[in-house]
Structures are given as structure tokens and as C-alpha cells.
């Protein structure tokens, strides 16, 4: 069962990376029209690769963990994307947002504790 939890973390990291690549592609699209296509397509290709790998790992997770346990754990993505967006893109976050992130983390912890 422990490998299932590690795989959920891997899925979260892969999908977080895919989301960040999509954001970077969107930013590249704002470049002048004569130079934006190449960088945008490279970031989108990397996003598809990461999200596809995440889906492949997710299928492995579903073989190891009950869906009712594994799916809520994907909420870890909210935490990872928030932290990465703040760090990489300097996106602002409010106290209310961080309280929501903390609530998600508490929920993940409660879901992972076996009775």
C-alpha cells in the first residue's frame, strides 16, 4: 500500500509540472507573433508529455489503492500548484488562500490515516 501513496505523489508532481508548462506556454503566446510559436509549442509538448505520464502512473495507482482513497489525495495538486505558482511566477496568495491550502492538507492527512 505504501507504494500506492508514493505513486500518488508522483502523479501530483507530474500533473503539477504539466500545469506549470501550460502556464508557461500561455505566457510565451504573449511574445511577438513572429517568435511565439516555437516556444509555445515546446512548452505545450512538455505539458502533454508530463500530463500523459501522470495519467499512466495514475492507472497504476488505481490498481493499488481504492478510488475513494486515491482520488481525494490528488488534492495535493492544489498545494503543489499554489506553491510553484508563487515561487516560479510570483503569483500573489492571500491569507484566505493559505487557509484553504492548509484545510486541503489536513483533509489529505485525515484521508490517509487508516482506522
From TrEMBL:
It is a multi-pass membrane protein. It is found in: Cell inner membrane; Cell membrane. Coiled coil: none annotated. Pfam families: EamA. It comes from the Bacteria. Pathway: Bacterial outer membrane biogenesis; lipopolysaccharide biosynthesis. One of its GO terms (cellular component) is plasma membrane. Keywords: Cell inner membrane, Cell membrane, Lipid A biosynthesis, Lipid biosynthesis, Lipid metabolism, Lipopolysaccharide biosynthesis, Membrane, Transmembrane, Transmembrane helix, Transport. The chain crosses the membrane at residues 41-62, 69-89, 95-113. GO terms for molecular function: carbohydrate derivative transmembrane transporter activity. The keyword Transmembrane helix applies. Residues 30-112 form the EamA domain. InterPro entries: EamA_dom, EmrE-like, Flippase_ArnE, Small_drug/metabolite_transptr. GO terms for biological process: lipid A biosynthetic process; lipopolysaccharide biosynthetic process. HAMAP family: Flippase_ArnE. Heterodimer of ArnE and ArnF. Translocates 4-amino-4-deoxy-L-arabinose-phosphoundecaprenol (alpha-L-Ara4N-phosphoundecaprenol) from the cytoplasmic to the periplasmic side of the inner membrane. Belongs to the ArnE family. This is Probable 4-amino-4-deoxy-L-arabinose-phosphoundecaprenol flippase subunit ArnE. It comes from Serratia inhibens. The lineage of its organism: Bacteria, Pseudomonadati, Pseudomonadota, Gammaproteobacteria, Enterobacterales.
Amino acid at each position: 500500500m505504501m507504494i500506492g501513496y508514493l505513486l500518488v505523489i508522483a502523479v501530483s508532481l507530474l500533473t503539477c509540472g504539466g500545469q506549470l508548462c501550460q502556464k508557461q506556454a500561455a505566457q510565451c503566446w504573449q511574445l511577438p507573433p513572429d517568435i511565439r510559436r516555437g516556444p509555445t509549442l515546446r512548452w505545450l509538448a512538455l505539458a502533454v508529455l508530463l500530463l500523459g505520464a501522470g495519467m499512466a502512473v495514475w492507472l497504476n495507482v488505481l490498481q493499488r489503492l481504492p478510488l475513494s482513497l486515491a482520488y481525494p489525495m490528488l488534492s495535493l495538486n492544489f498545494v503543489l500548484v499554489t506553491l510553484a505558482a508563487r515561487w516560479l511566477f510570483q503569483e500573489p496568495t492571500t491569507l484566505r488562500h493559505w487557509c484553504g491550502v492548509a484545510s486541503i492538507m489536513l483533509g489529505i492527512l485525515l484521508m490517509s490515516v487508516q482506522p
